[in-house]
Fold this sequence. Notes:
By secondary structure, this protein is of the alpha/beta class. It is built from 10 helices and 16 strands.
Amino acid sequence: MSDHQNLLAEQRRALILDEVRRRGGVRVNELTRRLNVSDMTVRRDLDALARLGMVEKVHGGAVPVAEASTYEPGFEAKAGLETSAKEHIAQAAAAMAAPGTAIAVAGGTTAFALAQQLVDVPDLTVVTNSVRVADVFYTAQRAAAAGGSGARPGAATVVLTGGVRTPSDTLVGPVADAAVRSLHFDVLFLGVHGISVEAGLSTPNLAEAETNRHFVRGARRVVVVADHTKWGTVGLRTFAALDEVDTLVTDPGLPRRAREEIAEYLPELVVAGEREDGAAARDGAGA
Length: 287
């Protein structure tokens, strides 16, 4: 029996999406053979990816969606993609947050996954412009209070910037910029829309680019949390060069060639969830 038969729907769809992007299109009959699943299963997967705006269905298969550099999908659309990768990335990145430090967590679905790992790190001061990230910490505090234990010992102090809300539930604009640029962080955890050698870190939202620029300037260490699908994607505006990043935490789907390119610019590349001789692998010039 093929290993593909036991894949979760989420994993199958990630494989299909990678194939569409790599080859420029796929046919249903090819996917049924490769994944060893039924024609109906493949069509349901393609329907799900099409609803999320990740592929365009054509007769007999699917092709990539040509995304404009200004296109910004909403939080819900992105939340269902690469969920296993985001979970591994979040676990690896959370280990970089030391108790008692001041950290910043910018917006995005990977940052949201990270926040869920950070709630148990004691005595953090967390600055965020993400409504979703802030709510993770507030929910944990409310749950503790509802359980009769009052405020949790070592619970994080959370500072949510004001600002204008983006489709990703991130607060940006002059109010957010003013709050962020007056602060300094031990570590910034930053999700990105796109990352490449040429364009660095980029986003389709001009106001978000400016807010992110202030986050980067105020951080002693910049940790980008991004799954492999973000590599090679370019948004409308660059807000940081690749050599301004200290660490990239990604997943095993990142191609070898991309890892080699990244190692030329970044001190550290962490591939979360990769197994090598029974241990998680660490790649990069600083590994």
